[in-house]
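User: tokens in, sequence out, please.
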């Protein structure tokens, strides 16, 4: 089965991990600081806190923002459920705002309608690696004192109006799951433009521990002393995985270039294929292209999905609208509230996209898609 996403691991990555294993530090050591510094270079110089996974990054960011019971968090439904559920875990109420037609990122007009005096955070999602319209979102938030969060799980290395992802929102979260644009096996990070938010994020991911004597209530207890002023969780990313991340970051330019090349090849190959629409983009964006999401027309997405899977092509659907999940339905959220996202979901199909996808395998994907749209199943490739 040709997967829809796949990590790229080289001997350099393996050697970096082995070197960390042979060092004196397996966690909370120099590779963590190094990885955070390397990430900051990609985030326009904004400080970063490495965490254990992308969901943890969202939880940490919401905690740093002070999200709690009685607060509202505005979220688009076209995302992985964690963008919303991690805020619910802190007691927030989720307000779903629809997405734009072309990029399926958060619609500023929907944000303007959803923002109230109770809004603590507006969370934009860079769907498929295409940045949301951050300037328009800022304007849509009006005089609100809510923070803007960028869920950039798909978009590290992307730019918006020549500004790098990481500088566009008050808080930015990254994911380094194996199918993402670089990997630490599991891992994530939070970037914060305000040093105070970054400190809150770092403290929350480290169980809330306060080791700085200048900030402790009882600093004269002894050299071993540490305090917890606000509860946090253990969301630390160990040195071993940070070493892998640092090695991967050295190849991120190449990863992004190959993804862009594959996207251009898909665009050309599918431009005149009836029954399918290729992904849109804005002139001001340089996407990172984590996904290649096509739309299958005429109600045939399920049929095409099944035929391509039968042909050995591991297509995927990204994502079930978050408010459709039973956990949200049980809270009273109903289908029909975000028609653009729901219509897109009914058509969306993610084609395989990863840096080591060969031209020949990509042509196989295109042939299988064309066959499926003709009502046929392409023959799977020989093992």
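Assistant: Sequence out:
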């Amino acid at each position: 089965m040709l997967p829809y996403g796949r990590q790229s691991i080289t001997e350099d990555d393996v050697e970096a991990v082995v070197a960390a294993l042979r060092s004196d530090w397996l966690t909370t050591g120099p590779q963590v600081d190094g990885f955070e510094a390397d990430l900051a270079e990609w985030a326009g110089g904004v400080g970063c806190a490495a965490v254990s996974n992308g969901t943890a990054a969202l939880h940490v960011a919401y905690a740093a923002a002070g999200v709690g019971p009685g607060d509202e968090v505005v979220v688009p439904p076209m995302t992985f459920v964690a963008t919303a559920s991690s805020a619910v875990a802190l007691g927030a109420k989720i307000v779903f705002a629809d997405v734009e037609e072309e990029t399926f990122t958060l619609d500023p007009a929907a944000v303007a309608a959803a923002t109230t005096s109770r809004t603590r955070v507006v969370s934009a999602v860079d769907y498929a690696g295409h940045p949301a319209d951050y300037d328009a979102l800022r304007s849509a938030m009006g005089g609100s004192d809510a923070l803007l969060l960028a869920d950039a799980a798909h978009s590290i290395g992307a730019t918006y109006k020549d500004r790098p992802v990481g500088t566009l929102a008050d808080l930015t979260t990254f994911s380094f799951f194996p199918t993402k644009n670089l990997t630490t096996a599991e891992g994530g990070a939070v970037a914060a433009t305000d040093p105070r938010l970054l400190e809150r994020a770092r403290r929350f991911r480290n169980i809330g521990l306060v080791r700085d004597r200048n900030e402790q209530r009882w600093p004269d207890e002894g050299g071993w002393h540490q305090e917890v002023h606000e509860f946090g969780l253990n969301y630390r990313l160990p040195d071993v995985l940070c070493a892998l991340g640092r090695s991967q970051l050295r190849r991120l330019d190449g990863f992004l270039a190959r993804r862009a090349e594959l996207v251009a090849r898909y665009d050309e190959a599918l431009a005149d294929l009836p029954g399918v629409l290729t992904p849109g983009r804005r002139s001001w964006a340089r996407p990172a292209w984590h996904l290649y999401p096509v739309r299958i027309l005429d109600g045939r997405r399920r049929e095409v999905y099944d035929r391509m899977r039968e042909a050995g092509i591991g297509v995927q659907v990204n994502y079930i609208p978050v408010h459709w999940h039973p956990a949200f339905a049980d809270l009273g959220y109903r289908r029909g509230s975000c028609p653009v996202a729901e219509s897109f979901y009914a058509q969306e199909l993610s084609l395989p996209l990863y840096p080591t996808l060969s031209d020949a395998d990509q042509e196989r994907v295109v042939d299988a898609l064309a066959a499926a749209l003709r009502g046929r199943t392409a023959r799977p490739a020989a093992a």
